[in-house]
Amino acid sequence: MSFGETRGGEDTSETTLVQPAVPDATQAHPVEPTQAQPTQARPTQIRPVQARLRPAAAGRKLQDRYRLDELLVDRGDTQTWRAYDEKLLRPIVVHLLPANERGNRLLAAARQIACASYDSRVLRVLDASAPADADNPETDNFVVCDFAEGETLEDLLAVGSMRRREAVTFVREVAEALIGMHAQGLYHRALSPALVTLTCEGNVKIAGFLFAAELSPARTPINPEAADVQALGHMLRALGADESSNANLAQASARILDPAHPAPLRTAAQVTAHLTRALNDPPPPPPAGEAERTRAHPTPSVISQEPVDTPWSSPRKGFRWAWVVVPLLVAVIIGTIVAVPLLHNALTGSASTASPGAAASERWSVVAAQDFDPEGNGEERPNQVSRAWDGDPNTSWRTMNYWEAEIGNKTGVGLIFDLGEVRRVSRVELDLDGAGTSLEVRVPATEATTRPPLQGVGQWTVVGQALHAPAATTVTLDAPAGTRFVLVYLTELPRDGSAFTGGIAEARFWS
């Protein structure tokens, strides 16, 4: 379920979606709130007067399109429904909001995330509508969100169906998704295992970004970035990461949650990098006894070893041969420097030549990326996107399997890379998954500084291409482009067994 909320029409606490102030590491789910004591009964609480919602029942339609099917949560002045979009024929989640100041604030938060979110791991806000007659208290606002079918991290923890490594990979995906959102100044502020879903396809989906905190305003974090990062620490602690034999993993939650830790993790990027190292760590060392025997016969260190019989200690040895060998070596090196770019251009079909200022170009960092499949179902292995810019050429984002190199009835599929701000891009270096891929490098046809165009490939302009490229290829743009977003669009895939598939292991962007 998209918002990970309880079924039924019962009234749930407004703090259901919020982290507890002081987590208890001994609890199975430290993010769950404690139950209120009998002396804190709701009837005694003083609440501001709220505009009441119109009586809602299953079957009611909004805008003659969104059909309400099942009430998930009733908070009194807001409701969350599982619903169905009868125009696009897909399940959705609808939030009914009051037509008052609070409802307008919720609507504004929903519209903000709708305009900014483009990471496929963040469930989108699809529609945010105000009533036609704002003076009529019988009308209400509503927000339509994506629906993700699957199990929440909270559910998976409850039944213990995930191995620790799988769960940590799950949390790492969440941390990685936060990087791009935080770069836009957007924060979840109410992140919990109940709001993170693992779909049937193995994709991570984060629900309630920005909006969940507004639905449950009981606790508003002073530092929203710190709140999101600490939520990752709570998740890791709930997974039992503290008890792992992996040293990096065992230290992860402490480095996040302990304010006095000498090496704290304070950003989503730091958490992602730390968890990546933890997942890539080699197995634990051998038992102590075996380790001691290994240290009893240490291997000499090349670094500390003094050089023996170097040219500096015996300058006359081979001196005459140096006059012949050195010029030959210099000629070979110069020939290689000149020949390699020419050979590379011949293989990639690029007519460009190396310029004297190429060595001074600057590499731009990627802050986020997403899959791009506007002519298919909208997704192309989104759970693998991070592999195309994680710095590890041994991991890659791969396309689905296709029965022909030209990708069936599509013009292509690809990845959109976010450079964080407008950059001057002159060339793109790619490590492809398989030789023989044809691709285009595209930039938005119109200025895009906050989000990339997603409606179709026609919104992007081709600025460079490579036909039947080798696994390591460089695409030099026809002219330097000033852009924040770069689309690497695969148009023809190499054969892989009985099917055709391609991919990107690493993408690097240079000025």
TrEMBL record:
Q: Which keywords describe this protein according to UniProt?
A: Membrane, Transmembrane, Transmembrane helix
Q: Where are the transmembrane segments?
A: 321-343
Q: Where is the composition biased (Low complexity)?
A: 33-45
Domain of life of the source: Bacteria
Segment Disordered: which positions? 1-56, 277-313, 372-392
What is the name listed in the Swiss-Prot or TrEMBL entry for this protein? Protein kinase domain-containing protein
